[in-house]
């Protein structure tokens, strides 16, 4: 199975009394020869670079929305569509992508994603150099669209890569590293865009800065990734998956998964809107682009720190549900606090602290929630599981972005504003964001309950019996590193 990845073999299991003692099944362990390969770290590195680069293309213009609008000769709403197009394009394309990743394989998906990402970045830069001003925005939008086509090919692969290449005690950590490379790209956006594009005329230089790394990443993916899956799986569950259509049917009948999809999708939408609109929200109260960029950067830095801590914790304890419910509660409280403090002038310290706390608890949920989604829906393919959540998140992101912008009101007099000519009140959208976050968090805490199906399957394959959620055993089938 060196070059494949579409077909996944059924691992033999032995049925026995659930109450039987958890002793390793010697005969079965002879059939289960698990191995891990050092090349998994290279594939993870390529995925991280690709995810980071795609995120940088996604929100290139958000931290410098006012300057981008002047350079492109368009309104702020049209600048927001350069980010929003990622969500609009990804929704229909995601259905094809989930099938592609789970059926055709990881290698093809990553290589195709890297080429689309590179072409999108190069087209954007080329469009910015056109002498005909009326053609600049459409060509830049075309480049954004190509990047949007690459996004689901990249977004759906962290859980797939973790399942195919990493043993069970490293899956959550690998997923966390791959998933958090996306907010790392958003962090670089918030730092690089205001630093490079200090004037509207420097937007082409900014696009060149973002285009150059995509060529290197595309080369690494095309030449370096030689197979979709390892010759020998790293765990008992790595080579077990339902066909694509059957998997979709199972997901639509899985109550726990549907609750997770709706609530976590809203979480993705809130974080997306927060990242996209942060500069426009803060400028009304006199905060400049540099301060907004700092808040966005701290939001992501603390999110990555929180995700790292939470990923290591759940890899060790397997307490997915408890960790997510606690983090969602604190993230909701931070969202409520931001919706109040961001509307008050001269509150820099409070805004910085709240953005940091919001990121720490909000972003850290993402990789663990994807792992929990796989646990509650096993043996459905990992890309299909992540894909439907991503689609739901994108649909809700589009709706929220449109509704939030529609609910803004133009302010006639705002002497401290740094927004330029377009000064909008974000009071109503902020209250709505806090209310929706509270509602969906309560629904998740009350209604989400599940078994850890993948862990149970691995325990049964190794011991011939199921173990309860979150329990661990002292001996398992060995994983040999090569």
List keywords for this structure.
4 strands, Growth Hormone, Chain: A, 18 helices, 482 residues, mainly alpha, 2% strand, disordered N terminus, two-stranded antiparallel ribbon, two-stranded parallel sheet
Topology, pairings included?
Elements (H helix, E strand, L loop, with lengths): L25 H6 L2 E3 L2 H20 L6 H8 L3 H29 L1 H23 L4 H23 L1 H9 L5 H26 L6 H22 L19 H9 L2 H29 L5 H29 L2 H22 L6 H15 L2 H13 L4 H26 L1 E2 L13 E2 L1 H21 L5 H11 L15 E3 L1
Parallel strand pairs: 1-4
Antiparallel strand pairs: 2-3
Helix pairs in contact: 2-5, 2-6, 2-7, 2-8, 2-9, 3-4, 4-5, 4-6, 4-16, 5-6, 5-9, 7-8, 8-12, 8-15, 11-12, 11-15, 11-16, 11-17, 12-14, 12-15, 13-14, 13-15, 13-17, 15-16, 16-17
Give a brief rundown of this model:
The protein is mostly helical and 482 residues long. It has one domain: Growth Hormone, Chain: A. The chain has helices at residues 26-31, 39-58, 65-72, 76-104, 106-128, 133-155, 157-165, 171-196, 203-224, 244-252, 255-283, 289-317, 320-341, 348-362, 365-377, 382-407, 427-447, 453-463, and strands at residues 34-36, 409-410, 424-425, 479-481.
């Amino acid at each position: 199975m060196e070059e494949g990845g579409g077909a996944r073999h059924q691992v033999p299991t032995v049925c026995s009394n659930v109450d039987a003692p958890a002793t390793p099944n010697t005969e079965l362990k002879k059939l289960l020869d698990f191995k891990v390969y050092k090349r998994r770290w290279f594939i993870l590195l390529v995925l991280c670079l690709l995810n980071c680069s795609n995120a940088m293309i996604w929100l290139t213009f958000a931290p410098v929305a006012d300057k981008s609008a002047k350079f492109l000769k368009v309104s702020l709403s049209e600048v927001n569509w350069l980010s929003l197009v990622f969500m609009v394009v990804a929704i229909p394309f995601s259905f094809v992508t989930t099938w592609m990743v789970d059926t055709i394989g990881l290698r093809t998906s990553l290589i195709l994603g890297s080429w689309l990402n590179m072409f999108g970045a190069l087209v954007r830069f080329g469009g910015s150099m056109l002498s005909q001003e009326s053609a600049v925005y459409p060509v830049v939008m075309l480049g954004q669209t190509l990047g949007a086509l690459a996004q689901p090919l990249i977004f759906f692969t962290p859980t797939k890569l973790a399942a195919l290449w990493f043993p069970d005690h490293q899956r959550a950590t690998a997923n966390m590293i791959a998933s958090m490379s996306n907010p790392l790209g958003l962090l670089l956006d918030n730092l690089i865009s205001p630093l490079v594009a200090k004037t509207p005329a420097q937007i082409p230089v900014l696009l060149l800065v973002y285009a150059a790394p995509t060529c290197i990443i595309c080369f690494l993916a095309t030449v370096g990734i030689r197979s979709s899956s390892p010759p020998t799986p790293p765990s008992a569950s790595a080579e077990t998956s339902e066909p694509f259509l059957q998997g979709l049917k199972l997901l639509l009948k899985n109550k726990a998964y549907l609750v997770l999809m709706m609530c976590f999708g809203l979480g993705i939408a809130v974080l997306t809107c927060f990242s996209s609109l942060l500069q426009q929200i803060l400028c009304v109260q006199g905060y400049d682009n540099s301060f907004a960029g700092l808040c966005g950067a701290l939001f992501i830095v603390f999110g990555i720190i929180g995700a790292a801590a939470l990923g290591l914790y759940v890899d060790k304890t397997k307490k997915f549900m408890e960790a997510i419910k606690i983090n969602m509660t604190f993230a909701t409280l931070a969202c409520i606090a931001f919706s109040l403090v961001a509307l008050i002038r001269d509150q820099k310290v409070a805004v910085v602290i709240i953005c940091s706390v919001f990121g720490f608890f909000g972003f850290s949920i993402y990789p663990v929630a994807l792992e929990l989604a796989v646990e509650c829906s096993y043996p459905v393919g990992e890309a299909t599981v992540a894909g439907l959540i991503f689609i739901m998140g994108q649909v809700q992101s589009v709706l929220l972005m449109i509704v939030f912008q529609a609910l803004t009101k133009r302010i006639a007099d705002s002497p401290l504003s740094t927004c330029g000519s377009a000064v909008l009140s974000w009071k109503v959208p902020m209250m709505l964001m806090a209310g929706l976050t509270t509602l969906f968090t309560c629904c998740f805490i009350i209604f989400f309950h599940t078994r850890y199906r993948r862990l149970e399957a691995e325990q049964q394959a190794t011991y011939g019996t199921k173990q309860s959620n979150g329990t661990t055993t002292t001996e398992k089938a060995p994983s040999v590193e090569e």
